[in-house]
C-alpha cells in the first residue's frame, strides 16, 4: 500500500468510509420521516432498524480513534503526514483529535501520541509549529498534566518566538515551571538561549571554512567555541555534514553565504534553514541529495541572489516556481538537472 510508486490511501479511505456510513444513516432517517409524513411507509420499522444497524455497526467496528492514532504514529512520513490538513488552511484529523476540539473523547491522549511522532520526525519546523499555535491552549493543558511532548512543543514555540505578546509567553513559562519535567525543559531552553546570545554577540570571524571530513558533531563543537555574531560566509563544502547540522546553522541569522557542495545535506535541513536564514544571498547545493521537496522551501528566502543546483534532482516545474518566487535571483546553475 505504501510502495515507492503509490501514495498512501488513508487520507481518502478513512473520511470516505465515515462519510458513506453517516450519510446512509441520515438518508434512512430522512426517508423514514418523509414516509411517516406522507403516510406511505415502504419499509417496516424492523427493516429500517436493520439497515440502520448495518451502517452503525460499521462505524462501531472501525473505531475511528485508534485507526487515526495508528496512522498518525506510523514511523513512515508518507503515512503519518496523512493526519495533517491537505492544505495549510485546511484542518486534518490532528485538529479533530485536539483536546480543545468537541470531537476529542480521550482527553488528548491520541493527539499527544501523534504529536510526538510528528515532532520527532518531519514536523519539527517553524511552519508546522506556527500552525500549532492555534492549539496553544491544548498544548498548555497537556503540559500542565505532565505530557513531555507538549512541554517540548511549548519550549520550541518560545525559542522560535512564535508566541505573540509577553503576557501569553509568561503564561507558557508559568505552565512549564508548574511540573518537574517542564521546569527541567525550560531550564535547558534558558541555557540554550544564553549560549545563543553569546554565539550571536558581535565578534569572531566574518568567514569560516571547515576542513573536509568534518562532521555534524564538528560543526556543533566549532559553533560552541566562541562568538560568531559577525559570521557572514560559511563553507562546509566536501565535508560529511548532513541535514542534522541545520539545527546549528539556524543560529547564525547574519549568514549571507553558505556552501554545502558535495555534502549529504538534504531536504529536511533545507526546509529548516529556509525558515530561519532570511538574509542568505548565496547558496551552493551542488551535488547534494536535495529534491523538489526541499528545494520548494527556498521560495521563502527572498534575499537569494545566487543559487547553485548543479547535479541535483531539480525538476523543470520547481525551477520555474523558484524563478517566479525569488525576485532577487540573478544567477542559477542548473547544469546536469532536468531543468538544464
UniProtKB/TrEMBL annotation:
State which residue ranges cross the membrane: none
Q: Would the keyword Signal be found if you checked this record's keyword annotation? A: yes
Q: Does the keyword Signal apply?
A: yes
Q: Which UniProt keywords apply?
A: Signal
Question: What residue range is the signal peptide?
Answer: 1-23
Q: Which Pfam families match?
A: LRR_6
Highest taxon listed in the record's lineage: Eukaryota
Q: Report the protein name in the record.
A: C-Maf-inducing protein
* Species in which this protein is naturally found: Cherax quadricarinatus (Australian red claw crayfish)
Amino acid at each position: 500500500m505504501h510502495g515507492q510508486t503509490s501514495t498512501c490511501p488513508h487520507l481518502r479511505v478513512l473520511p470516505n468510509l465515515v462519510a458513506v456510513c453517516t450519510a446512509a444513516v441520515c438518508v434512512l432517517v430522512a426517508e423514514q420521516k418523509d414516509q411517516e409524513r406522507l403516510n406511505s411507509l415502504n419499509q417496516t420499522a424492523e427493516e429500517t432498524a436493520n439497515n440502520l444497524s448495518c451502517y452503525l455497526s460499521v462505524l462501531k467496528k472501525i473505531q475511528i480513534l485508534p485507526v487515526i492514532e495508528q496512522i498518525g504514529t506510523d514511523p513512515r512520513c508518507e503515512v503519518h503526514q496523512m493526519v495533517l490538513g491537505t492544505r495549510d488552511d485546511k484542518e486534518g484529523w490532528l485538529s479533530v483529535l485536539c483536546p480543545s476540539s468537541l470531537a476529542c473523547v480521550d482527553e488528548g491522549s491520541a493527539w499527544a501520541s501523534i504529536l510526538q511522532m510528528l515532532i520527532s520526525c518531519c514536523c519539527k519546523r517553524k511552519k508546522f509549529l506556527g500552525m500549532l499555535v492555534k492549539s496553544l491552549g491544548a498544548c498548555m493543558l497537556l503540559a500542565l498534566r505532565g505530557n513531555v511532548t507538549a512541554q517540548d512543543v511549548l519550549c520550541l514555540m518560545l525559542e522560535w518566538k512564535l508566541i505573540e505578546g509577553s503576557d501569553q509567553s509568561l503564561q507558557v513559562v508559568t505552565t512549564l515551571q508548574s511540573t518537574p519535567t517542564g521546569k527541567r525543559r525550560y531550564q535547558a531552553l534558558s541555557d540554550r538561549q544564553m549560549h545563543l546570545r553569546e554565539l550571536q554577540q558581535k565578534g569572531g570571524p566574518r568567514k569560516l571554512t571547515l576542513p573536509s571530513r568534518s562532521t555534524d558533531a564538528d560543526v556543533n563543537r566549532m559553533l560552541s567555541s566562541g562568538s560568531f555574531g559577525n559570521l557572514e560566509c560559511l563553507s562546509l563544502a566536501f565535508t560529511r555534514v548532513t541535514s542534522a547540522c541545520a539545527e546549528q546553522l539556524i543560529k547564525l541569522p547574519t549568514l549571507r553565504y553558505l556552501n554545502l557542495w558535495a555534502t549529504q545535506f538534504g531536504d529536511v535541513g533545507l526546509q529548516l534553514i529556509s525558515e530561519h536564514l532570511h538574509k542568505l544571498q548565496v547558496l551552493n547545493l551542488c551535488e547534494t541529495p536535495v529534491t523538489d521537496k526541499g528545494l520548494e522551501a527556498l521560495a521563502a528566502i527572498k534575499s537569494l541572489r545566487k543559487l547553485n543546483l548543479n547535479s541535483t534532482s531539480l525538476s523543470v516545474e520547481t525551477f520555474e516556481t523558484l524563478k517566479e518566487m525569488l525576485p532577487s535571483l540573478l544567477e542559477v546553475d542548473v547544469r546536469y538537472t532536468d531543468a538544464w
